[in-house]
Amino acid sequence: MPLLLLPLLLGSTPLATDAAALCEALLAQQPQRGAQALAQAAEGCRGAEPVLAFALTQRALALAPRSAPLQLAHARSLLALEERGAAAQLLDGLVHTAPTRGEVQLQARLLRAGLAEAEGEPGRVVALLAPLGGLPRARALRERAHAQLHARAREEAALAAQQRAHARAGAEAAQCAARAKPEAPLRPGQEAWGTRGVVQSGGQRTFRLRNVRAGHTYLLLATGHCTVPRPDAKRRRTSPSPRDLFGVDFRARVGGLEAWPLRMGLDPERSSFSFRAPEDDPQLFVEDRSASRPGVRCSVRDLSVRVP
Helix or strand or coil: residue 18? Predict the structure, then answer.
């Protein structure tokens, strides 16, 4: 048993105080060897006593803060306590500073790639594991990351095709409306304009509000809806709950008027805004300003303009 562990095992007795003083004296005389002994002790007890292992590697790192092996040991202690953010920061530093072909560099990349996979970042996983070549320990992580990237590419291609189809439908509807003869004045509650066009997460679209006349007051109606992945009960969550839609930011703007935020929910939410048309047939611009949220998919549909 390393002498440095005696104060921890003896508690707060006078003997423990003397042992602690002796340990500190030894550490002051040989800080490098003492730090290594602390790291070895942490490796042995991390599974059963993660808090004790954290304290040991933290003390070891204070003795030799530039030691790459000790930084790696402390990152393992942080992961054992689910302190993923701090561990990721420490591992990122090792990836950039540890010797390229050393064991510390290898372990740092593997651990950091595991964190990136847990956070839904397959692109970072591939980048982290690229220097490791065909190493068997990296193969499974790399294969899963490539599969996720291919799935995302297929989803994006399907979304782009859907948007092109909606754009063609919108253009055809606009042409038909342009050829139509002027209608009689609209009655209260009657629809002046409507579309089946959809604006998806990360997208933006511009519509022409036909039959909307300058100086008249109208109501803009829109329905916002979001879907989120189902929670996995077997996996510990490290990011905010997917049911938290904070940060979803869809906006609509008519002509040069001020933009309005559109309501979005896990159940369809209806937005209604009153506006005075600045011109005949003004443009309606709808866009998503949200930050990227893995797995969260939102859309705005059922856009229409009515006479109040």
Answer: helix
How many residues can be counted in the chain?
308
Is the pTM here over 0.85, yes or no? Answer: no
Q: What is the distance between the alpha carbons of residues 185 and 173, in angstroms, rounded to a whole number? A: 21
What would the two tokens of residue 76 be?
């393992």
Q: Is the dihedral of CA 167, 173, 177, 179 positive or negative?
A: positive
| CB-CB neighbours of 71 under 10 Å | 22
Dihedral over alpha carbons 170, 176, 178, 181 (to 10 degrees): -150
Question: Could you give the CA distance from residue 174 to residue 274 in angstroms, rounded to a whole number?
Answer: 23
State how beta strands 217-227 and 204-208 pair: unpaired
Query: Mind listing the domains of the chain with CATH numbers?
Result: 3-145 (1.25.40.10), 181-306 (2.60.120)
3-class DSSP state of 223 = strand
* Predicted confidence (pLDDT) per residue in 55-103, tens digit: 889 988 888 888 899 999 999 999 999 999 999 999 999 998 888 778 8
Number of other residues whose CB lies within 10 A of the CB of residue 63: 19
Residue entry with tokens 């920061």: 89
Tokens 């599969």 correspond to 147
Going 65 to 67 to 72 to 73, the CA torsion angle's sign is negative
The dihedral through the CA atoms of 170, 176, 181, 187 has a sign that is: negative
Cβ-Cβ contacts under 8 Å for 261 (sequence gap 6 or more): 249, 250, 251
What is the chain's percent helix, strand, coil content, to nearest 5? 50, 20, 35
